[in-house]
Amino acid sequence: MNLRNSIIRQLADGRFHSGEELAETCGITRAAIWKHIKKIQDLLGMEIFSVRGKGYRLTHPLELLDRDKIFAAMSLESQGQLQRLDIHQTVESTNACLLNLKTDDRVSGHACIAEQQTAGRGRRGRQWISPFGNNIYFSLLWEFSMGPAQLSGLSLAAGLSVVRSLETVGVSEIGLKWPNDIYWRERKLAGVLLEVTGEADGPSSVVLGIGINTGMSAAQGESIDQPWVSLNEITGGNNVSRNRLTGLVLGNLLQTMADFECDGLQPLLDEWQRYDLYHNRPVTVHQGNNSINGLHRGIDTSGALLLELDGKIQPFHGGEVSLRSAK
User: How many Å separate Cα 227 from the centre of its chain?
Assistant: First the structure.
């Protein structure tokens, strides 16, 4: 695995590297380099060109995860809130990495980041497409003194953390789709997955996963069944630093977790409404086999969607409904 990592890091600049150069750096034969290149293509799904007389090259450069660069994007306060940071090449899912920890190994403020997920998950068990080195996938473990019912608005607060970070790197025209999807011009850019365990009266353990499309190609995302967009497309190829954005989101999320423990969602309601894509628009809420049409009137302090039906406001909670703009 270390040899494979070394090869990937040398190829990450997007330039040609000869088999001889790679072999000398790794201390193996050119034939062995060719075998490792094949494994990288087969196991990680990476596209690598091979040209006689030039060597090997990735289809485009990659900014691989770098602990120091991630920390550099975080404030001193958020660095202090982060108790542990794990960076992996490939995992099943970053949420699963933290959920599967033994009780004695669980510490509040533990983050897990990966170059690739082989079984990334979104809401309602949907697959989250996770190609190697092209997007951001990370999860944060946080322990709360309160019970799970009091955390129902946390994923909405996390969505705001992502929006703030994206605006910091110059991305505009961002909107939030209840409960926790981040959109750009009606196409999905990022999402939040919240998984909670705990006693009714507390304490609770939260694993909060973040996925952001940063450099995914059309071919890599062809199986996605909804309109989506990546940061590279939004910026016209002026790449946003993957490490900087990871550090910004992680730092903002750590602060959000700490603030939510004290204040809940209440202080964020007005800010959330400013980004709400569907506020005061007609929507259709799908609940099981039922479809309910009404006017989207915002959210309450529990994070519930407020739907106006026949002049009356009715709350709908995450995990029960999905939301589509009415035609």
Answer: 17
Give the bridge partners for 86, in sequence order.
112
The pLDDT of residue 83: 97
DSSP letter (8 states) at residue 151 = G
| 16 and 126 together in one domain | no
71 in the same domain as 53: no
Q: And the tokens for 108? A: 């509040």
The b/e string for 246-272 (b: 16+ C-beta within 10 A; e otherwise) is bbbbbbbbbbbbbebbeebbeebeeeb
By annotation, the residues acting in catalysis are 123, 188, 324
pTM: 0.88
Residues 207 and 266 both lie in one domain: yes
Tell me the three state secondary structure of residue 227. coil
Note the pLDDT tens digit of each residue in 158-196: 999 999 999 999 999 999 999 889 999 989 999 999 999
Q: d(Cα 143, Cα 193) in Å, to the nearest integer?
A: 16
Tokens for 277, please give them: 């894509």
- Look at residue 62 in the predicted model and tell me its pLDDT: 87
CATH number at residue 164: 3.30.930.10
Same domain, 240 and 297: no
Could you tell me how many residues make up the chain?
Answer: 327
Q: pLDDT (tens digit, 9 = 90+) per residue, 265-316?
A: 999 999 999 999 999 999 988 877 888 889 999 999 999 999 999 999 999 9
